[in-house]
């Protein structure tokens, strides 16, 4: 019988804070494809791979952390969970809370939140409140609720989330046989860059478990390259941004919760965190769908936008192995694919129910 992927907790149990007695809440997250990006590889002269996180159960990498956070919530005896979200965290929290039998409250910012993500939270029965403020304000409230009210916080300030998300790095190394030379990803609240760096470091050294020491799996760690949207780039500015603005809603965050760990990931790895414009993000979004066959949401394309930008500046080495995490599925936010250069919506060409006209429309000649 074919091996069935068991979700990140069971697959990496010896490297996560769980025990035999832990009741695992899972929807089978992780085990996502590492796709060879042919055109990006041709462009750069390096072997470029995409870690396609849109293939997770709710369509983003958030599920890796949410399986751990929800498992921890159940272990702690919680009856309800809360999160602030630009969209994907709420979709994931709502689904995993349902699987765990817990109530879920979600705080989303005013304006700009994708219909796809909203529909997920609603479908899974979360109580959704739109706060008159931005994501950072929502996270503030969620943290205070977690401190002073009987609800369990499942944002990435919860260390269980980072524990789960570090499995992305494990999977990359398990697929490639070693760590890549460079790992590229979008940066918003900065939990994911922190989690990948933690995962890569743990795989590159002996690891202590309750049953003994596991040997190192990889011979090295990658250089971490993070990319923010230019209108929401606090790491580039060196301080929080009060009015973050970008079409890439998943990374529209001005005051990242995981500031110190993200800076450590950047500096310890000899890496960088830079900015890309919304136009560069949308170009990369189009590149992925039209050249590589991978459909992502705009925020997910920030890493690819960054790689293309660094290549144009002559700063991407050739002959290396480069992995880019593309963080969420294109179907979350499909409007961007349906927009033409002039801003109008793409309309399908209408044809009669007749093979000759259809063939002519397709430019086909009868053989
Ligand atoms: C959450 C999210 C990000 C940002 O990740 P952080 O851990 O907040 O830096 C990027 N892309 C997508 C699709 C996301 O859902």
Largest sheet: 6 strands, mixed
Arrangement of strands in the largest sheet: 1-2-12-7-10-11
Which ligands appear in the coordinates?
A: pyridoxal-5'-phosphate
In total, the number of strands is 12
Provide the helix percentage.
25-40%
Distance between the termini: 46 Å
Mean pLDDT: 96
**What share of the residues does DSSP label as strand, in percent?**
15-25%
Shape: globular
Determine Rg (CA atoms, Å). Answer: 21 Å
The low-confidence runs, each spanning 5 or more residues with pLDDT under 50, are: none
Order of helices and strands: HEHEHEHEHEHEHHEHEEEHHEHHEH
The structural class is alpha/beta
Compute the number of helices: 14
Provide an overview of this structure.
By secondary structure, this protein is an alpha/beta fold. 38% of the residues lie in helices and 16% in strands. The protein is built from 14 helices and twelve strands. Helix 4 (88-100) packs parallel to helix 5 (115-123). The longest helix is centred in the C-terminal third of the chain and has 15 residues, at 278-292. It is globular.
Give the secondary structure arrangement, pairings included.
Blueprint: H1 8-11, E1 34-36, H2 38-44, E2 47-52, H3 62-75, E3 80-84, H4 88-100, E4 103-109, H5 115-123, E5 127-131, H6 135-148, E6 152-153, H7 159-165, H8 167-176, E7 182-186, H9 191-203, E8 207-209, E9 212-214, E10 223-229, H10 234-237, H11 259-268, E11 272-276, H12 278-292, H13 302-312, E12 321-326, H14 355-361
Parallel strand pairs: 2-12, 3-4, 3-6, 4-5, 7-10, 7-12, 10-11
Antiparallel strand pairs: 1-2, 8-9
Helix pairs in contact: 3-4, 3-7, 4-5, 7-9, 8-9, 9-11, 12-13
Bound molecules: pyridoxal-5'-phosphate (PLP).
Pyridoxal-5'-phosphate is lined by residues 60, 62, 88, 156, 186-192, 250-251, 297, 299-300, 327-328.
Catalytic activity: O-phospho-L-homoserine + H2O = L-threonine + phosphate
Organism: Paenarthrobacter histidinolovorans
Domain Tryptophan synthase beta chain-like PALP: 25-328
């Amino acid at each position: 019988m074919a091996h069935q992927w068991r979700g990140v907790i069971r697959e990496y149990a010896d490297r996560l804070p769980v025990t035999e007695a832990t009741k695992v809440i899972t929807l089978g997250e992780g085990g996502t494809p590492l796709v060879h990006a042919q055109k990006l590889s041709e462009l750069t002269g390096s072997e470029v791979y995409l870690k396609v996180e849109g293939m997770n159960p709710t369509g983003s990498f958030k599920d890796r952390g949410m399986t751990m956070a929800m498992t921890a919530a159940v272990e702690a005896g919680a009856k309800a969970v809360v999160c602030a979200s630009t969209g994907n965290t709420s979709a994931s929290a709502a689904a995993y809370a349902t699987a765990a039998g817990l109530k879920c409250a979600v705080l989303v910012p005013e304006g700009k939140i994708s219909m796809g993500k909203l529909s997920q939270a609603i479908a899974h029965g979360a109580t959704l409140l739109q706060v008159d403020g931005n994501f950072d304000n929502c996270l503030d409230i969620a943290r205070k609720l977690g401190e002073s009210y009987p609800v369990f916080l499942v944002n990435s300030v919860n260390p269980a989330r980072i524990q789960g998300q570090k499995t992305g790095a494990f999977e990359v190394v398990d697929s490639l046989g070693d760590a890549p030379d460079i790992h590229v990803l979008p940066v918003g609240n900065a939990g994911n860059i922190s989690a990948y760096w933690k995962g890569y470091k743990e795989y590159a050294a002996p690891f202590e478990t309750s049953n003994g020491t596991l040997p190192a799996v990889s011979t090295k760690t990658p250089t971490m390259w993070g990319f923010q949207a230019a209108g929401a780039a606090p790491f580039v500015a060196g301080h929080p941004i009060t009015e973050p603005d970008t079409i890439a809603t998943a990374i529209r965050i001005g005051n990242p919760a995981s500031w110190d760990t993200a800076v450590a990931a950047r500096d310890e790895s000899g890496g960088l965190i830079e900015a890309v414009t919304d136009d560069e993000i949308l170009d990369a979004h189009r590149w992925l769908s039209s050249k590589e066959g991978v459909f992502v949401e705009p925020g997910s394309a920030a890493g690819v936008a960054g790689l293309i930008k660094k290549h144009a500046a002559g700063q991407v080495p050739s002959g290396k192995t480069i992995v880019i995490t593309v963080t969420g599925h294109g179907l979350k936010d499909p409007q961007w694919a349906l927009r033409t250069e002039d801003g109008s919506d793409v309309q399908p060409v209408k044809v009669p129910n007749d093979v000759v006209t259809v063939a002519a429309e397709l430019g086909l000649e009868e053989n």
